[in-house]
Design brief:
The protein has 366 residues and is of the alpha+beta class. It contains 7 helices and 12 strands. It has one domain: Sandwich (Jelly Rolls), CATH 2.60.120.330. It is 25% helix and 14% strand. It has an 8-stranded mixed beta sheet with strand order 1-2-10-7-12-5-4-3. The chain has a 4-stranded antiparallel beta sheet with strand order 6-11-8-9, with no helix packed on it. It starts with 15 loop residues before the first strand and ends in an 11-residue tail after the last helix. The structure holds 2-oxoglutaric acid and fe (ii) ion (FE2). 2-oxoglutaric acid (AKG) binds next to strand 5, strand 11 and strand 12.
């Protein structure tokens, strides 16, 4: 008898928000989506992230990843979480994966106020006009994050401070632009779709993540809100979206946002798989902007009636696990036990966990 096909993934319809005219109504809807799904789409309209800016970032990403391994190795990732990490070097869900993620990535930390990078940059990304662009892209991501955070603050009815979140997202911080490349699998490669994945199940560490996807390069899946042990695809274009323009920006809440709101905002577990129909025959490129609060921000409870009410209603509940792949959401049990760690301590804690799973071997990028 042939093998049994896994049950089809339930489709969920994430809302798309146009924030060109921010309002209380939109703010409430964003908070609702961040609570229910932990994920939502942003129409680039109303953000400084133009098609030109995003396309250029992807072009540079392609150029960098196509450079020889020896060049990329000059900028190998270190404990500061900046630089290049090669194929199978990270394993995001060690309990489930047979081998490391089928991906390579390049992390860029914050640029200085002078527009210069604070890390060793690869040859391909060193030209003056390239650095100017990379700085502009990072700035546009930061501005978009601030606008989104102000809407989240408004939707959460934060006591007397419209900029509660954004004023806590300055510099220095762990904010990172991450270029990602998931190479196509050669035709005859043996792989098992459930254990060999492009990025294992995980939740993000920071406050909010912006994710840029490319047309025709699907693969991202999230745990559905009902907590079931299935996966729902999050395609580059949501249903009914005008596919002649660039894909909307995907936003998700990270562990820190969940921690800060005692789980009111959901840090949803997600993964990236090889598309089932093309048998992994196509490369996927994506770009993530991981938003983090300023390093010294103390993670005291968010002063919001809604967060307080949520905390009351879940007081009886148990602490949740931290980012396990089998859960619908990540680290949400923030307000119990010891508190008041800083954003930097929070990030280091999570990075240390990842580092113990990073394999310190020489990588070959095929
Ligand atoms: O490539 C993607 O779609 C997602 C990447 C991701 O989830 C991550 O790097 O945290
Ligand atoms: Fe992620």
């Amino acid at each position: 008898m042939g093998s049994i096909e896994p049950a089809p993934s339930p489709r969920i319809r994430l809302p798309v928000f146009d924030i060109s005219e921010p309002s209380e109504r939109i703010a409430k809807q964003i908070v609702q989506a961040a609570h229910s799904y932990g994920f939502l789409y942003l129409d680039p309209n109303g953000t400084p992230l133009t098609e030109e800016l995003v396309n250029r970032e992807f072009e540079l990403s392609k150029q960098f990843f196509s450079s020889p391994t020896s060049e990329k190795e000059h900028c190998k990732i270190g404990p500061d979480n900046r630089g290049w990490t090669g194929m199978h070097n990270e394993i995001l869900d060690p309990a489930k994966q047979r081998k490391g993620d089928f991906k390579e990535a390049f992390n860029m930390g914050e640029f200085g106020d002078d527009g210069q990078p604070r890390q060793k940059m690869p040859k391909r990304l060193c030209e003056v006009s390239t650095l100017v662009h990379l700085y502009e892209f990072e700035k546009a991501c930061r501005q978009t994050m601030h606008k989104l955070l102000d809407l989240i603050g408004l939707g959460l009815e934060i006591d007397g401070d419209d900029k509660w979140f954004s004023s806590r997202h300055g510099s220095p911080s762990g904010c990172t632009v991450r270029l990602l490349h998931y190479p196509a699998l050669p035709e005859d490669t043996e792989y098992s779709p459930e254990t060999d994945v492009r990025a294992g199940a995980h939740s993000d560490y920071g406050s909010v993540t912006l994710l840029f996807q490319r047309p025709g390069q699907p693969g991202l899946e999230i745990r559905p809100p009902d907590g079931s042990d299935t996966w729902s695809p999050v395609p580059p274009y949501p249903q009914g979206y005008d596919e002649t323009s660039m894909p909307p920006i995907l936003v998700n809440m990270g562990d820190l946002m969940s921690y800060w709101t005692n789980g009111l905002l959901r840090s949803t577990v997600h993964r990236v798989i090889f598309p089932k129909d093309t048998k992994g025959g196509r490369d996927r490129y994506s770009i993530a902007y991981f938003g983090h609060p300023s390093d010294e921000t103390e993670l005291v409870p968010v002063p919001s009636r809604l967060v307080r009410e949520h905390s009351e209603s879940t007081k009886e509940g148990k602490d949740e696990d931290q980012g396990s792949g089998s859960l619908a959401h990540g680290y949400g049990g923030g307000m119990t036990g010891e508190r008041s760690i800083t954003a930097k301590q929070h990030l280091l804690k999570r990075l240390n966990a990842t580092y113990s799973h990073r394999m310190n071997k020489e990588e070959e990028v095929s």
